[in-house]
Amino acid sequence: MNKRAAIITSYIDTPFPMKDDAESMDIIICTDGGYDLASEQKIRPNFLLGDLDSITSPIPEDIPVIRFNPEKDYTDLQLAIEMALEIGASDIEIWGGIGGRLDHTIANIQMLSNFSEKCQRLILRDGANEAMILSAGTVHKIEARDGWYFSLFSLSDTCQDLKIEGAKYNVDNFTLTRNYPIAVSNEFASDIVSITVSGGTLLLVLASK
Predict the structure, then answer these.
(1) Distant-in-sequence, close-in-space partners of 131: CB < 8 Å, separation ≥ 6
(2) Which of 31, 117, 137, 170 has the largest CB neighbor count within 10 A?
(3) pLDDT greater than 70 at residue 70
(4) pLDDT by residue (tens digit) across 37-64?
(5) Phi first, then psi: what are they for 20, rounded to 5°?
(6) How far apart (Å, rounded) are the C-alpha atoms in residues 30 and 196?
(7) Interior CA angle at 36 toward 34 and 41, to 5°?
(8) Strands across the sheet containing 140-143
(9) Helix axes 102-115, 76-87, angle to 10 degrees
(10) Strand 121-125 vs strand 129-134: parallel, antiparallel, or unpaired?
(11) Is pTM beyond 0.70 here?
């Protein structure tokens, strides 16, 4: 059985009620200061990892703690994703990691690109934004959200044969390039927006208006 995992990062720019979503998860992993955010919403993680230098909440002795030297070649988020995969999770939500330090946000988007093929679903989200990689050769159905934009970015040099249906701005057989963000701030014009691409690494970002 495929497991669902949530990774709570140490920074959530736009908070949301994590407690409700946590109840549907098989695994909760906190990275460093993410434990404080979890404690605030009375969420008990299955694992806590990081150098733990920024945690202020008391940590129960029965929560497994994996400590890492802060001078390492991997980010806490990368280690947390690898742990979730090793435990058997294929549906992974990363809570937070958007906003704040730009270098951390870029690194987290790169994590999406790096691990998306190893997951059935991998998403980076907070209360106002969501980001995920859309695999090539698949029809992706995105449900409309009132008061939200959706944007598409090519993380590869190009994304070929992009097709968007059901949006305010539709395209067909379009080549999206990495250096020209023409697909920003599109809007839903129907209940479902359909997105397909034949090749390349396509990033979808949903953002609240």
Answers:
(1) 98, 109, 112, 123, 124, 125, 203, 204, 205, 206
(2) 31
(3) no
(4) 999 999 999 999 987 777 777 788 888 8
(5) -60, -45
(6) 34
(7) 100
(8) 140-143, 192-196, 158-165, 171-177
(9) 30
(10) antiparallel
(11) yes
Helix (H) or strand (E) holding 76: helix 76-87
Residues 132, 135: Cα–Cα separation, whole Å: 10
Q: How far is CA 55 from CA 29, 48, 194, in A?
A: 14, 11, 42
Q: Which two tokens stand for residue 146?
A: 């009132």
DSSP character string of 24-56? T-SEEEEETTHHHHHHHTT---SEEEE--SS--
User: For residues 124 and 127, what is the distance between their CA atoms, to the nearest angstrom?
Assistant: 11
Residues 118, 25, 196, 198, Cα dihedral to 10°: 0
101-117 residue pLDDT tens = 999 899 999 999 999 99
